[in-house]
Amino acid sequence: MAQLYAKSCLDQNLRSLEEWKQDAFTQFGEMVGDEADTFPCVPGRQGFFLDHLRYGFVGDPREEEAVDELAQLLREYQSCAKETGQYASFICFFETPQDLKESSLEEFEQQFWSLLQRLHQKDEVPWPEDIPLDTHHHEWEYCFHGEAYFILCSTPAHKLRKSRHFPYVLMAFQPRWVFKKLNGSTKFGQKMSQLVRKRLKAYDEVSVHPSLKWYGDPTNHEWKQYFLPDEEAEKPASAKCPFTALKNMMKL
Predict the structure, then answer these.
(1) What would the pLDDT profile of 67-92 be if each residue is shown by its tens digit?
(2) Which residues, in sequence order, are bridge partners of residue 161?
(3) What's the pLDDT at 182?
(4) pLDDT 10s digits, 20-30
(5) pTM score, two decimals?
(6) What is the 3-state composition of the chain as percent helix, strand, coil, each rounded to the nearest 5?
(7) Known InterPro entries for this protein (predicted)?
(8) N-to-C CA span, the chain
(9) At what angle do helices 42-49 and 19-32 cross, to 10 degrees?
(10) What is d(CA 237, CA 108) in angstroms, rounded to the nearest whole number?
């Protein structure tokens, strides 16, 4: 059974885990907590040092067992997330064999959306009434176990967009409630956005992606931010979200 960890626990017990898990967490710490303080996501960096983040390790994302493990971890995380701190996020590391590491960015994106589809099929809790079913709606967000999450995916295939590069498949689930104080309508949120964008420009080898907007902005689509491409081009307005699991529910 997969286990949910705090940084404080992993710091003390990391050597007891499988080698790939040790490596994944170590590299994550070196990336987010780098001494030069260059990692763009300031809230993520704060969450790392303050022990607000929670971590899990699951198998190869192509395998059904990994989806079962992720579902179990998210249910467990949902029950404790609000006790972890204001910079809460769940970081899931996936075992990434060499053949998977050699996948193209397009293949990783297909696997990402396939995993979210399969994860949704294991959700035993109804979709929250306050979150639209239509993925094209500017207030849509992915939900699991009654909780809305902003999700981002990092892969070995991201090269130019270094902020989305990681040697293992990594998915971060950030509860929607984290953004109640961190949004475009608050001075804190506005200042944080300016700071993160400034750091992204310095960190990545491409411009800040045009899809990165605030939740609730009528021109925003959250799903476009989940898996960013290496290039700067934005998906066309007519682009459809690959997550199609809700279409039948919309017809009811």
Answers:
(1) 999 999 999 999 999 999 999 999 99
(2) none
(3) 75
(4) 999 999 999 99
(5) 0.95
(6) 40, 15, 45
(7) Uncharacterised_YqcI/YcgG
(8) 36
(9) 120
(10) 22
- Distance from chain centroid for Cα 22: 20
From residue 1, give the alpha-carbon distance in Å to each of 21, 79, 124.
15, 17, 19
Q: Under DSSP, is residue 154 helix (H, G, I), strand (E, B) or coil?
A: strand
CB neighbour class for 67 (10 Å; exposed up to 12, middle 13-18, buried from 19): buried
Residue range(s) defining the domain that contains residue 106: 5-251
48 in Cβ contact with 29 (< 8 Å): yes
Element of type H or E holding 250: helix 247-251
CA distance 164 to 155: 7
Q: What is the pLDDT of residue 252?
A: 39
Residue 243: what pLDDT? 94
CA distances from 173 to 105, 202, 206 (A): 20, 25, 24
Q: Which of 123, 76, 68 lies closest to 245 in space, CA to CA?
A: 123
Confirm if 85 and 49 have CB atoms less than 8 A apart: no
What's the total number of domains in the chain?
1
Amino acid making up residue 248: N
Structure tokens at 164: 């989305």
Please report the beta strands in the chain, taking only residues with DSSP state E, as ranges in sequence order: 5-6, 53-58, 89-94, 142-144, 147-154, 169-175
